[in-house]
Amino acid sequence: MSAVINCAAYADGHRIANLKVNDIGKILQQTDKFVWIGLNEPDEALLAEAQQEFGLHDLAIEDAHRAHQRPKIETYGDTFFIVLRTAQLQEGQREITFGETHFFVGVNFIVTVRHGSTFSYSDVRTRCESTPHLLRKGPFFALYAVMDAIVDQYFPIIQTLGEELEKLEADVFSGKPNRETITQIYQLKRELLEIKRAVSPLIDICNRLMRFDSTIIPEETRPYFRDIYDHAIRINEMIDTTRELLTSVLEVNFSLISISQNEVSKKFAGWAAILGVPTAIAGIYGMNFEFIPELNWRFGYPVVLVFIAGTCVFLYRHFKQSGWL
Amino acid sequence: MSAVINCAAYADGHRIANLKVNDIGKILQQTDKFVWIGLNEPDEALLAEAQQEFGLHDLAIEDAHRAHQRPKIETYGDTFFIVLRTAQLQEGQREITFGETHFFVGVNFIVTVRHGSTFSYSDVRTRCESTPHLLRKGPFFALYAVMDAIVDQYFPIIQTLGEELEKLEADVFSGKPNRETITQIYQLKRELLEIKRAVSPLIDICNRLMRFDSTIIPEETRPYFRDIYDHAIRINEMIDTTRELLTSVLEVNFSLISISQNEVSKKFAGWAAILGVPTAIAGIYGMNFEFIPELNWRFGYPVVLVFIAGTCVFLYRHFKQSGWL
Amino acid sequence: MSAVINCAAYADGHRIANLKVNDIGKILQQTDKFVWIGLNEPDEALLAEAQQEFGLHDLAIEDAHRAHQRPKIETYGDTFFIVLRTAQLQEGQREITFGETHFFVGVNFIVTVRHGSTFSYSDVRTRCESTPHLLRKGPFFALYAVMDAIVDQYFPIIQTLGEELEKLEADVFSGKPNRETITQIYQLKRELLEIKRAVSPLIDICNRLMRFDSTIIPEETRPYFRDIYDHAIRINEMIDTTRELLTSVLEVNFSLISISQNEVSKKFAGWAAILGVPTAIAGIYGMNFEFIPELNWRFGYPVVLVFIAGTCVFLYRHFKQSGWL
Amino acid sequence: MSAVINCAAYADGHRIANLKVNDIGKILQQTDKFVWIGLNEPDEALLAEAQQEFGLHDLAIEDAHRAHQRPKIETYGDTFFIVLRTAQLQEGQREITFGETHFFVGVNFIVTVRHGSTFSYSDVRTRCESTPHLLRKGPFFALYAVMDAIVDQYFPIIQTLGEELEKLEADVFSGKPNRETITQIYQLKRELLEIKRAVSPLIDICNRLMRFDSTIIPEETRPYFRDIYDHAIRINEMIDTTRELLTSVLEVNFSLISISQNEVSKKFAGWAAILGVPTAIAGIYGMNFEFIPELNWRFGYPVVLVFIAGTCVFLYRHFKQSGWL
Amino acid sequence: MSAVINCAAYADGHRIANLKVNDIGKILQQTDKFVWIGLNEPDEALLAEAQQEFGLHDLAIEDAHRAHQRPKIETYGDTFFIVLRTAQLQEGQREITFGETHFFVGVNFIVTVRHGSTFSYSDVRTRCESTPHLLRKGPFFALYAVMDAIVDQYFPIIQTLGEELEKLEADVFSGKPNRETITQIYQLKRELLEIKRAVSPLIDICNRLMRFDSTIIPEETRPYFRDIYDHAIRINEMIDTTRELLTSVLEVNFSLISISQNEVSKKFAGWAAILGVPTAIAGIYGMNFEFIPELNWRFGYPVVLVFIAGTCVFLYRHFKQSGWL
C-alpha cells in the first residue's frame, strides 16, 4: 500500500483534480483552491518532499516522523501542526488500540499523517465531498471533519468502560470478595488514565482553534471547533466520573470485605463456643478421681448429655439472636 | 400532543397574539415586540421551520435535536444557544428523573425546546404574564423566569439527599456494620455526581449571562441572572458538602467495623481462655497413670472443681476489667 | 420588641438625631450627613418602606426578607447589598448557633438587617460613636465596625473546636479504640464544614470591598476591610489545618485499631498455644491402651507434669521475648 | 533590657550616628540618609512615639502591638508593613520555638519589631555595616538582610524534620507495628503544617516585593527579594515532599500491619492444626468403649504415637511450604 | 582535570578559535561572534574571573557556586541565569545519580557550569559544530542543544521506573502479600517525587524562554524551546500517571491482603470445626460414668467412628461448597 492514500485539489468545495505530490506547488499558488493530502506512515523521503512542497518547519517534520507524541497544537509561521491520539475498540473485542494522527494545516492545504492502527479517513473525505457548501469553507473545515471523526471514536469506548464499571459494581455488591474483581478495577483505572491522557489535551487544542488570534482560521469555521471542544469536555467528564466511581467501588469493596471478615470471625467464635462447652464438661467427667459421686449415679450420663445439649441450644439461640451466627 | 406547546407575541409585557410558527417572521421585524415559543421534543421538520424563521445556526439546530448534551451556553452571531439539564423528584418517590431544555434567545425572541421528562413551562409563562412590568424587559427576562423555575427544582432534590445522608449517618453510628448501608452510600454518591454534572456548568453559564460583552442582553436583566448564579453556587456547595460528608461517613463506618472486629476478637479470646482452662486441667486428671496420688484423695474432685471454677471466675473478672468481655 | 432597633442620623462622626423611618428621605438629600438604621427580622411592610426611602432593588429586598442566603456581595447601581453569616457559642455550652445579617450600604446610609440568633449591634454603634474621628469616615466605616464584630465572634469558636481536636488527639493516642471518639471526630468535621461555608465567602467579599472599582467606597476606609480580610484568611487557615489534622487523626486512629487487633491476635495465639500443649499431652496419657509402659512407671505422673509445666514456661518465655504476649 | 535595641542613622552605607527615638524626625527630612531602628516587644507608648515619628497608620500600629498575626505584606501610602513568622530549633533540642517579626519600611527608614523568642538582629546589622557598598542601597537592603536571616533559620529545621522522617521510615520498614511510631508520624505532620503556615505566605510577600508597582523599592534591590523567594519556594517544596512521604509512610505502615496480622493468623492456624490433631486422635483412644480392638493390641500405643507424630510432621512441612509457618 | 573543559569562539556557526578565559573580553565586543565556555565545578577564583569577563551579577555567581539549587530561570539585565537538575541511570544499575548544571547566557556568550555527576557536554558541542547552519543561530541554540541533551537523559529513567511499576503490579496481582513489594512501592514513590521536583520547574523555564518579552532571544530559536517544553510536559505526565498507578497498586495490594486474611480466617474456622467435632464426641465417650449403655454395646466404637467420620466429611463438603475451604 502506498503511503500516499489520497491527494486532491479542491475548489469551491468540489474535488477538481487528483494530484501527484510534486504537482502540489502549482495549486498552492492559487488562493481560491486548496490541497488535501492523506499520508499513512510516510517514510522520511516522502515527508521531506511534503516539507519542501508546503514549506514546513524542520521540528514539525521531525515530530511527524516519530509517533508517540503528546496531543498538541503548534504554529510555525502560517502553518498549524496538530497531533492527536486516536483510539478504537476492536470489533467484538475488549481491547483498545491507540494510534496517532498528525495534521499540517495552512491557508490552502491540509496534510494528514496517520501512525499506528487508525481507521482510514477516506469515509470522512467522501462525506465532506458530499456537502460542498461546507467543504467550501476550506482546509479548516476538512480539519474539523477529521478531528470530529477521531473524537467520535471515543464515545463507544467510554460507554464500554462505563458498562464494565456497572459489571464491577454488581460484582462488588453481590458481596463475594474477589481477587479477579479487584484486578479488573485496577485495569479499568489504567485504561481510563491512558484515554484521559489522549483526550484531555484536546480541550486546549480546540480552545486555541476557537480563539487563536490568527487570521488564517476563517471566522465561520470556528464554531465547528467549539463542537469538538464540547465533545472533548464531555468525554473528559465521563472519564473523571468513572474514575471517581471506580475509587469509590474500591473503597466500598474494601468495607464489604471487612464486614465479611467480621461475620466470619463472629460465626467462628459462635461455633467454637458451642463445640467448646461439651468438650470442657466431658473433660471434667473424664477425670479419674476415685470419688466423683455423679459417676455412680444412674442418671448421671443422661443428665449430663441433656445439660450439654441444653447449653449448646442456649448458646446457639443466643448467638443467633445477637447476629453472630 | 402537538410539539408546539405555546407560541405568542408580546408587547410591553402583555401577550398580544397567539401565533402560528410561520407568522413569526412578521413579528420579528417589529423591534418593540418579542416572540416566546415553547416546543416539546420537536421533530426535524419543525426545527427546520424554526431555524428558518429565527435564522438559527446549523450546529445549534443539530444540538437542539439531540438530547444528552452537556449544559452550555454558545453564541452564534446575535443568538444565544443555551442547554440546561432539568431534574425532578417523582412525587412520593425517591427516583430522580433527568430531562433537558434548550433555549434560543435573540434580541426579540425566545425559543424553549424541552426533551425528556420535564414539567411544562406554562405556569412560568402565566406567572410572567401576571407581572407585565417585569416581562416588559424582554426575552431575557423570560429566559430568567424559565431558568429560575428549572434551578428551583434542584433544591427539594438536594434536601432529600441531605436527609438520606442523615439517615445513613444514623445507621452508621448505631454501630451495626451493614452491607445495605454501604450500598446506599455508594448510590447516593453516584446520584450526587450526576446532579453535580448537571448543575456545575450553570455557574459558568450565568457568569457569562451576567458579564458577557454583548449588547443584546439588557443591563437591567443582568441582576436576575446573578440571582440564578447564587442559587447554582449554593446547590453546588451543598452537593460538595454532602459528598465530603459521605466520604467521611464511609471512613467512619470503616473504623467502626474495625473496632467491632476488635471487640469480637477480644470477646472470643476471653471466652476461649475461660473454656480452655477447665479442659486443660480436666485433661491432666484424665490421664491414666497408676500413681497419681490426688486421684485417691477423697476431696480431690471437689477441690479440682473449685479450683477450675475459681480460675474461670478470676479470668472472667480479669477480662471484664480490661475491657475484653 | 420593635423591628427597628435603632435609626439615627450622623454628621461629622456625631449622632445628630434619632429618626423615624419616614423621615429618612430628608436626611439622604444632605450629602454631609448619613443614616444608620438597624432592623431585626423586619416584616415585609417595613422592608417595603425601607426600599422606598433608600431606593433599593427588588431582588435585594427579596433576598433580605429570606434568611438562609449564602454570604455574598452585590451591587445594584450605587448600593451595595451584603449578606454575612454570624455564629455564636452559647455561653457555657458547646452548641454553635448560626444567624444572618444583611447590609444595604450606599453613599450616605447603611441598613443592617439581622435574622436568627445574632447579638445586637448596639454595642458596636456605641463604640463607633465614641470615636467620632473614625465614624466621620461615613457608612462604610460603620459597615467595617459591624463586620469586624461579626468576624471576631468566630475566633472563640475556632479555638473551642481546636481544643476539642486536642482532646480527641489525646483520646486516640491513649490507645483505646472508641466508638464515641470516632463519632465526635465526625461531628467536629461537620461543624468545621459549616463554619467554613460561612467564612470562606468573606475573603471574596472583603477583596471586592478593598479593590472594587467603585467611587462610593472612600479610599481611606479600604484598609479597614483588608483588616477583616486578614481575619477571614486566618480563620480559614485554622479551619483547614484543623480539618487536615482531623483526617490524620482518623487515619492514625485506624492504624492504632489495627495494631490493637494485631496485639489481641498475638496474645490470643500465645495463650492458646500455652493451654493447647497440656491438653494435647494429657490427651495422649488419657488413652486407654493396655500397654503404655509409662503409665505404670512410678514417676510417670510427676515427670509428665514437670514436662508440661516446662513446655508452658518455655512457650511463655518465647512468646514474651518475641513480643506476642 | 530596653525595648529599643538599636537606633542608628546611615548615610552612604555607613552608620553616622546613634539616635534617640525623638531625634529621628530630623534625619527623615534628609533624603540621603536613612534610619534603622530595632525594637523588641515595645509597649504601647513606644509604638505611639514611633508612629508619630514615622507617620505610620493606626491599623498597622495596632497589628504591630499584637503578636500571632499571619505573615503578610501591606502598604499604607508610602510605607510597607510586613509580618513574618520566625522559627528556631533550640540548641541540642528537638523543640521548635516560633516568634514573630514586624517591619515598617519607608523610603528612608526601616523599623523591625520583634515578638516572642527570636534571635537578635544585631549580627545582621553588623554584617550589613561591613559591606557598605550593599547597605548603601538603602532600607530595602536592610529589610532583605533581616528577612534572609529569618528564612535561613528554617533550613536546619526542615533538615531535622527530614532526618526524623528517615528514622520513621526505618522504624516502619523494620516491620514492628508500633504505637510510638504512629504517634510520631502524627506529631511530625502537625509540625510541618505549622511551618508551612509560617513559610508559604512568604512566597506571595516576596513576589510583591519583587514586582510591586511602587517606586519606593529601588530596582537594584529587587533581585535580592527573588533570592528569598527562591528559598521560600524550596522550603515549601521540601515541606510538601515530606508531607507526601509521611502520608505514604502511614499507608505503608498500615499495609505492613495488615501483612503482619495475616502472618499471625496463618501461624496461629498452623500451630492450632498441629496441636489439634493429637488432641483429636488421643481423644478417640481415650473413649471408654469396651470393645475397641486396638486398645488391646500390643503395638497400639507406639503405632498411634508414630501416627500422631507423622501427621504433625506432615502438617508442619505442609504449612512451612505454603508459607503459613 | 582543569575546571575549564572547553572555551571557544564561534562565528557563523563555526568554531574560529580556542580561547583562554582572559581573552574572552575581546571577542565579546564583536557582535558577529559568540563565546561558548564549559566549566566543571569551578573554584571561586575562576567564577570571579568569569564574572568579570561577562559582567555577571553577584547573586547569580553566588548561586552558581553552590549546588543544590532548585531549577529556575532568572534575568539579570541582559543575562539569563538558568539552573537545571540532571539525572542519569548508572550503566547496568538501578541507581539514579543527580547532578546540576547552571547556565549564563547573554547576547553573544554562553557559560555552562556543571556540578556533581553529570556527563560531559563535549558530545553536544561536537554535534552542534557539525550543523553550522543551526549553530549560527547563536548562544540560545547552544543552550537548547545542552538542555535537550539533559532532558533526554530523563526518558530512559522514566522507562526504567515504568518497568519497575509493571514488575510491582505483577507481584501484587500474583497475590502473595509481601513486605518487600510494599517497601519497593514506597521507594519508587520517593524516586518519582525527586524526579518530579527536578523536571516540573522545566515547564515554567521553557515557557519563559518561549514567550519572554526579551529581545535577546532570537525569534527563530524559540520553537526549539517549545520542543523541550513538550518533552518536559510528557515526562511530567508520565511521572504523574506512574504515581497515580502506584497509589492504586498500594490500595489494591491492601484489598488483596484483606481478602487473603479473610480466606485464612475461613480456612482456619473450617478446619477447626472439622477437628473440633471428633474431639467433642470423643470427649463424651471418654467420660467415666458407670452407666453409659453405648459403651457396652459391641458396635459402639465402630458406629461412633463412622459417625465422627461422617460428620467430618459432611462439614468438609459444606465448607468446600460455601467457599470456606
UniProtKB/TrEMBL annotation, chains A, B, C, D, E:
The chain crosses the membrane at residues 268-287, 299-316. This is Magnesium transport protein CorA. Pfam families: CorA. One of its GO terms (molecular function) is magnesium ion binding. One of its GO terms (cellular component) is plasma membrane. Mediates influx of magnesium ions. The keyword Magnesium applies. The lineage of its organism: Bacteria, Pseudomonadati, Bacteroidota, Cytophagia, Cytophagales. It comes from Adhaeribacter aerolatus. Its main location: membrane. Belongs to the CorA metal ion transporter (MIT) (TC 1.A.35) family. It is a multi-pass membrane protein.
